[in-house]
């Protein structure tokens, strides 16, 4: 199964990796590095941790390559690994008394562009504030709801793919998405009033 212009699909690259072609990992890393970092950042809220965990995902892909079931969708397997690593890291940080989880999440934001002036600057500030409000509301969701929401809304995964990644049914994913949206609506409407 090859994609356009003879470029091997993710699944074909995994088959090559399982067969001993270690070079097959490089194109997978190129394709999935940014989506993984984006997904993990939305779960943990810290840029540095997202970068570290994305690299750890690729280490796991390599070390666990024999457990990948040929024919399965690679993205589902990949996001499953990422979700588990993010969940474990959040648990670890919650137990660390040195730094609160809220402070840790606040420290990982990306620097914003401060170069605009006048009305453009005002619009950018308002937009950044809205984005920050939504990000904070998403970050406040319980991890199971947040993971389902991020995979569905930001990573455009199907209900079936999310269910496979999270180890639950498609109906459970649907329920998590409904509950996540309800909680977000409540949180965001209380902010606007």
Secondary structure elements and pairings:
Blueprint lengths: L9 H9 L6 H20 L2 H17 L10 H22 L5 H6 L11 H22 L3 H12 L4 H8 L3 H23 L1
Which CATH-level-2 architecture of the largest domain? Answer: Orthogonal Bundle
The amount of beta strand, in percent, is: under 5%
Which H/E pattern describes the elements? HHHHHHHHH
Looking at the structure, the CATH topology of the largest domain is Rna Polymerase Sigma Factor, Chain: A
The total count of helices amounts to 9
Shape: globular
Instruction: Assign the CATH class of the largest domain.
Output: Mainly Alpha
Protein model, in words:
The relative contact order is 0.11. With 193 residues, the chain is an all-alpha fold. The protein has 9 helices and no strands. It is globular and about 55 Å long. The chain starts with 9 loop residues before the first helix and ends with a helix. α2 crosses α3, α6 packs across α9 and α7 (143-154) crosses α9 (170-192). It folds into 2 domains: 1-108, Rna Polymerase Sigma Factor, Chain: A (Orthogonal Bundle), CATH 1.10.1740; 115-193, Arc Repressor Mutant, subunit A (Orthogonal Bundle), CATH 1.10.10.10. InterPro entries: RNA_pol_sigma-70-like, RNA_pol_sigma-70_dom, RNA_pol_sigma70_r2, RNA_pol_sigma70_r4_t2, RNA_pol_sigma_r2, RNA_pol_sigma_r3/r4-like, WH-like_DNA-bd_sf. Belongs to the sigma-70 factor family. ECF subfamily. One of its GO terms (biological process) is DNA-templated transcription initiation. Keywords: DNA-binding, Sigma factor, Transcription, Transcription regulation.
